[in-house]
Amino acid sequence: MEDDDRLIIIGVTDVDEEMKQRRAAERVKEEHLAYSRLNALAGDFVSVYVVDPETEHFREFSSTDYYKTFELPEEGEDFFAVSRQRIDRVIFPDDHQRFLSMFNRREVMEEIEKNGIFALTYRLMIDGKPTYVQLKATIVEEQTGKQMIVGINIIDSFVRQEEEYAKRLAQAQSKANIDALTGVKNKHAYLDEEERLDQMIGKHQASAFAIVVMDLNDLKKVNDTQGHQAGDQYICDACKYICDTFKKSPVFRVGGDEFAVIAQGDDYTQISGLLARVEAHNEEAVRNGGMIIACGYASYENDRCVAEVFERADTLMYENKNVLKKRQEENG
Hints:
Blueprint: H1 16-41, E1 45-51, E2 58-63, H2 65-68, E3 75-76, H3 79-85, H4 87-90, H5 96-102, H6 105-115, E4 118-126, E5 129-142, E6 145-154, H7 156-176, E7 185-186, H8 187-202, E8 210-216, H9 219-226, H10 228-245, E9 251-253, E10 258-263, H11 265-269, H12 271-288, E11 293-299, H13 306-330
Parallel strand pairs: 7-9
Antiparallel strand pairs: 1-2, 1-6, 2-3, 4-5, 5-6, 8-10, 8-11, 9-10
């Protein structure tokens, strides 16, 4: 045969198993690259996809058993379109619009280019319950070119803990802003509101408002003659009257026997009538020995800060207090 030029020797070898092993090895290598990057992102991922950022061809690397129940395709084209089309089956309805507005190729790629990673938190329906998950995406450089790695991991317990912490913090802050005796807001709350209004004034966005400063006459006399328990009740009765008068405005106890009201909205537009009501109450109290509440009022008039408005109102309150005391003395 070696001397016969007319003959050609052809051999066929079964390399199917070798090719399978080679493809498996390449896949393991690719998965290793993907998981290495995902581990850097941190998270216990329930599903991982690799997506060609140019063609949007995608392939699922792995997913948990309950994620497979969503019956999403393991491989295909148009990754973002497919993901958006199937939200009705997998995503909690309240999160549909946010997912649709944020999870598209342009938004994802811009965020990755800007910050190196795209992250989106939403809720999947798992076992009939909305469960918080976080989708993370980033770009990795592989031998075949750039690939987008997309991972989804459950963060429900973390989010629930954060929500509970925020709830408790809000409750604690609320308690810190409430006067223990009267139940209205305290001086700390007033200073917070003052700061907020000062910021609005600084931005030239402050709405019309007025400050009413009110102070109880004869609290010391009640404490000395009837005891502090009676004095506390005197403060509570006065507070109730103030709240009943300024029903649509926040009331603050800013001192032992001093209150401040920030009148806005309807109370601001009807302030003259409300102040007249307080004046009539005091006239009656002077004649009959009832509870007297000195009152001073000032409107915001392009002041630099709330403190300037408060000072004007406070000055007028002390003037009113002195007038009322003189009337008490005259009435014996």
